Amino acid sequence: MNAAVTNPPSAPAHPPQAAPDIRERFAAARAAGKRAKDAAESLGLSEGAAVAAHAGEHGHPLKAQPLQGSWLELLQALEACGPLMALTRNEGTVHEKTGVYTHVSATGPVGIALGEDIDLRLFFAQWHAGFAVTELANDPAKPPSRSLQFYNAQGRAVHKIFTRDATDLAAFDAVVSRFVQPSAGYVFGPEPAPAAVLPDTDIDSQGLREAWAAMQDTHEFFGLIKKFGVERQQSFRLVEGQFAWRAAPQAVARLLDEAAVDGLPIMVFVGSGGCIQIHTGPVRNIQPLDTPRAQWINVLDEGFNLHLRTDMIASVWVVEKPTADGVVTSVEAFDRAGELMAMFFGARKPGKPELQGWRDLVARLPGVQELAHAA
């Protein structure tokens, strides 16, 4: 078993006297309509800590069974379950994709799932805790929700997996039975301080531009920003006008609307820190939703849902990366904390150039100045 993808043993998450109170208050928050993450935060807890408090015997609607073992082997075992819904989220975006977990593998702590619908990049070093969760619905006529939920060391969800009507529940139960470990409690620590960003004047901007221009593959970008000690949006600022351009916050909603109208296949990446989840294909049913507390743009397609908080978008960048196949263009949305909410690309296969229709769509987005490849 690869130790890099096996969670370490942990101590109990909560003293026994704390759990009943957490369960009571969490159930009340959920009954009032709060999402699980918001319900936990209303108690001053991370979502992972709130879920951990529901382990063991009790009568509350949510029940959690701690899981332990190789996360890679657990995900590989899910193929027998048939269709499942994969959910990866961050503070402002939720990505939901239904399909079968197939072709799951890993090299050390980095994994990949390459199914027809479930397309994931997995960073198992961030997977600290796992639970099998069953939760009764507020509506007694609805069946309970069943899921596998994974959290990082701070109790933030890195990935969730939900059963669907077509799921083989016997196979799902077998996976839970194989990996359940009732004695495995989990502790969650505080969020670490954000990494310090170097002043622009401390960055070798000329070297960054030269290395950027020499890229042959988009995956080289991660090594590039590490080499130059530059934060992601900072790198965009330092190559602005050559490889990166600002767009208006409303560019994301316009992108989805126009892709739907054009029937243009796109790629939508959403990351949690421990997982990047990818949709490739067209988007069709684009629905905005404004509530008193939030504004959303939603993709509500069969097999793929995206929920993005447009009111949380602080900046949008159009970014070009040279590759052996030509320029690859992304549209990247960031929240006020500087966290990447979502990335969008034109759908393409390795060895194939970027779709001209995607380039044309990006060039039309509000706020975008003339792009280098359009010159």
Question: What order do the helices and strands follow?
Answer: HHHEHEEEEEEEEHHHHEHEEEEEEEEH
Determine the N-to-C terminus distance: 53 Å
- Low-pLDDT parts are 1-17
Gyration radius, in Å: 21 Å
Q: How many DSSP-defined strands?
A: 18
> What is the overall silhouette?
globular
> Strand fraction band?
25-35%
Instruction: Quickly give the structural class.
Output: alpha+beta
Query: Major beta sheet, specifics?
Result: 9 strands, antiparallel
Helices, by number, come to 10
Indicate the percent of residues in helices.
10-25%
Strand order of the largest sheet: 1-7-8-9-2-3-15-14-13
Chain-averaged pLDDT = 93
Which tags fit this structure?
single chain, 375 residues, alpha+beta, 9-stranded antiparallel beta sheet, 10 helices, 18 strands, 24% helix, 30% strand, globular, disordered N terminus
